[in-house]
Write a structure and sequence with these properties.
- The chain is of the alpha+beta class and 303 residues long.
- It is 34% helix and 16% strand.
Length: 303
């Protein structure tokens, strides 16, 4: 009789084989095994042809008998370890409307849409910000049909489905310059051209709480803020974005320098002050004037 150690030495290989037959249960696994015997051996056609069926039945009966004994032994052992609970009679319970509501997943609260910028507080030179939205806490925006947040490198897009669904019910199509999200057999909730290019190899999505499709998208250009996700939607005022300084540490030296300069110039413009380039030009001119005191610069116009 084959002992347990010999039986178990093929467990890893057989388990891997079984995992490839998750759909359909045990029958496809048995069919694969007997197909192997038919194609690669003479089990059905050679000298064993007359004994083949008997050998299969003998192996089945042996392991069936062994499984029965192991089950009886375990049941006897459990009897002394813990009392067997008395089965309760099955009951039919009517679920009320209140009970159904309690069992249902929580309804997601809709986020308030992003508010437009206060045009009365716009500084000189910020006329282009009229009609834009104030960024949400994640430097993105909340629309009626989706919301988004962003860092310099990544975007997170949240698309509520309006009900409880499974991932297989969703239809998500992500391309480098376009996006479509919705439910199979229905019109997409969002569909169109993206604000800018993304890296599709890094794009991911999942279904959160069975109600919201959450997408993670990596920007192609990692030194710009997106005004929106879908072209045509109202853009946020990127001049009012509040970047997280901690994110700058993830960038290489050259990129970080560019981003810090961009952020500084953005703050300076918002405050009506000279940008870094303006300051550099002014410093160059100051040094030139110091080196040439004989020249009269009183009639020169700067700016």
């Amino acid at each position: 009789m084959v002992g347990p150690p010999t039986e178990e030495r093929f467990d890893a290989m057989l388990l891997h084989m079984a995992q490839q037959h998750e759909v359909g249960g045990i029958e496809p696994l048995l069919d694969t095994f007997f197909g192997f015997l038919r194609r690669k051996t003479d089990f059905f056609t050679g000298v064993m042809e007359s004994r083949a069926e008997g050998m299969v039945l003998d192996a089945f009966r042996k392991h069936c008998d062994q499984a029965r004994k192991e089950r009886e032994k375990k049941a006897a052992s459990d009897k002394f370890e813990k009392p067997i609970p008395k089965p309760e009679p099955a009951t039919i319970e009517e679920i009320t409307t209140e009970g159904a509501k309690a069992m249902a997943p929580p309804v997601l609260e809709k986020e308030a849409p992003s508010a437009p910028v206060d045009e009365s507080k716009l500084e000189e030179g910020e006329e282009s910000e009229k009609g834009k939205l104030v960024p949400n806490s994640g430097n993105g925006a909340n629309y009626d049909h989706y919301s988004f947040t962003q860092t310099l490198e990544e975007l997170e897009v949240r698309v509520p489905l309006g009900g409880v669904y499974k991932s297989r019910d969703c239809k998500v199509d992500i391309k480098d310059r376009s996006l479509s999200v919705g439910l199979k057999g229905q019109e997409p909730i969002i569909k169109g051209e993206l604000f800018a290019k993304i890296l599709t190899d890094e794009a991911m999505w999942h279904l959160e709480d069975s109600q919201v499709v959450v997408l993670t998208l990596e920007k192609f250009n990692k030194v710009e803020w997106w005004g929106t996700i879908m072209k045509g939607d109202t853009e946020i005022s990127t001049k009012k974005v509040q970047p997280e300084n901690s994110k700058l540490g993830d960038l290489d030296g050259e990129t970080r320098g560019m981003v810090e300069k961009m952020m500084y110039d953005q703050r300076q413009k918002a405050a009506g002050k000279p940008t870094s380039d303006d300051e550099k030009k002014a410093e160059t001119m100051r040094k030139f004037m110091e080196q040439h005191p004989e020249m009269d610069f009183s009639k020169c116009k700067w700016g």
